[in-house]
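2024-03-11 09:14:02 INFO receiving multi-entity request
2024-03-11 09:14:02 INFO entity count = two
2024-03-11 09:14:03 INFO echoing inputs for audit
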Amino acid sequence: MEFDLLAVMLCALLVAPAYSYEKALPTIQTHDQTNGGVYPKTRVWGSNEKILLHFRAVRQLSEKQHWSWVICSEKIVVGSAVTYDYDAFGNLIHSTGTTPNNYLFAGEQFDPDLGFYYNRARYLNTSTGRFWTMDTFEGYDDDPPSLHKYLCVEADPVDNVDHCGKCLPAVAGYGDIVQEAIFADFELKTGGFTNTAINDILHKSVPSGGLLPDLIDPYTLSSFGLGQIWEIKSVYSEAAAIAKEAMYLSVLNFYSKGTGMKWIPGWTYVPPPIVSINASPWATIDQPAPGVITYCIVNTTEILSFISAAVSAGLYVAVSGATLTSSLAPGAA
Amino acid sequence: MRPTTTESQLSALRSEIAERCYRWAAKDVVRETAEDFPLVRKVKSQAAYRFLEIAEKLPKSERLRLVTALVKRFHMGGPAFASTVTTPEDQHLVTSYLEYDDGEITPGLKARLPIIRDGGNKQLATGPTANRVAKIDRSALHRSLVEKLRPVCGSKLVDLGPGSSFFESPVGPWTVTTQFSTASRFRHFDYWHRIVMPEGIIVGEGISILRWLGISGMSSWTLKDETEIEGAVADVAGICAHFLQETPLLLSGLEPPSSRGR
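2024-03-11 09:21:47 INFO inference complete, emitting structure
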């Protein structure tokens, strides 16, 4: 059994500070004798911690590739070569090498007795793509796969990764950022509240009370007994925004009878005309109707690409036209 | 359209309560400023961070001028009352506050985006993954809020549906409620108080620390992870206790309208 001790130590020094699997390590098999013949345990790592760190380093480098279903890189462990090929969900398709190893797909620990992966927060069954137990996170209403209690990486293992056995870390769209910016502006300027359930607004539990209007201002026109609400949507969902606004108003007004308060589509608040998301993209904001705010994401890079493509296409047409013209000209070959 | 007697009574009552709340908040903001904003610092929201950043750049005398102007903003019991207390200098200070943009950290529109703080260095976190709030167990958060607020905000808890509840605390003929919600995906939780008539009609609305100081409309918390739940819940309980112990004085001598025509 040979290995380059210097390389191993160097590798350990470089990688150990970023390593994050410490909790899983104590269960590594280090027995060098059989256990009543039922669960044969083979000496794998020996007592040399440096060898273990060597394996960690190689695994760390290949982890991302597992999730992308790129064939995983070769792992050199104690002089032996082991390779693993998985499908996208982590089911083993093919492997080479005989060195026993339970740290398999995505570097997670496989429990051969259960047949599941131990992903810390929960056990994962790769054959079904489901976790064994429920997700503690309730999910987002606007992200239906996140509501599923057992799905792993929202059933999209090619694009998503799981690092802890919990629900997929969500990625906010630009629309959320635009909404956040308008929320901040609205709260700052009007003193109103945002994204609040109708039950909370009315101070009582009513049917459809879980609906959440985006902007609520019960103050500005309170001396007239009027409250205002707004709905924010993408410019492509303007009709849906108008419909939702009407629904909110009907619920609010129906259950506000006798309180001296009427709810109307908002008109006193003027949102910022442009929200800068970053250097690029940004969003233009519009109020097409009372109580409705729409935004349109504009991406500078895409616009430049489009202009570039249009210019290139124009040149191509011009050149092609010139070539055609010249080829049809009298005397052309 | 001429308002009915009932609507007039309600309107007058709401104005009276708004004015009382303003008078109380005007005193409270002096205390808060003198003590270097201990309650505002408990609120974990970008609106609070933004305000503190502005305040910390000002000398103490300027801070008091700013907060005195801000505190008038959200207590307007109608245009008549507002015009008596708001001066042109106040309007100038408020405009400066709203338009504050230090060019690198918290432009007004981005007040809700997270600021990455690394020692003395700060930068605004932007990009498609920047602003989604961390995933935490909201049921546990709600349970924790109920547990910690119960001793402070009254024993009667009313459930309003998923993630929303309020406590009721009687103050003479009035009921002061403490409402809290973990329902919004844009923050972890928020809270506010209301003053409610015996018939259940709301006459004092949206009373919360950032709002009564004129900083922002909502007092909400966005946490980094579950380890912050306990501290945040204790903080909001402390802020609620601060307001609720003032309510008997705030509402003293104020009676609900004796009769209401329907």
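2024-03-11 09:21:48 INFO post-check: Chain B touches chain A through 65 residues (CB under 8 Å).
2024-03-11 09:21:48 INFO post-check: The CA atoms of residues 4 and 108 of chain B lie 41 Å apart.
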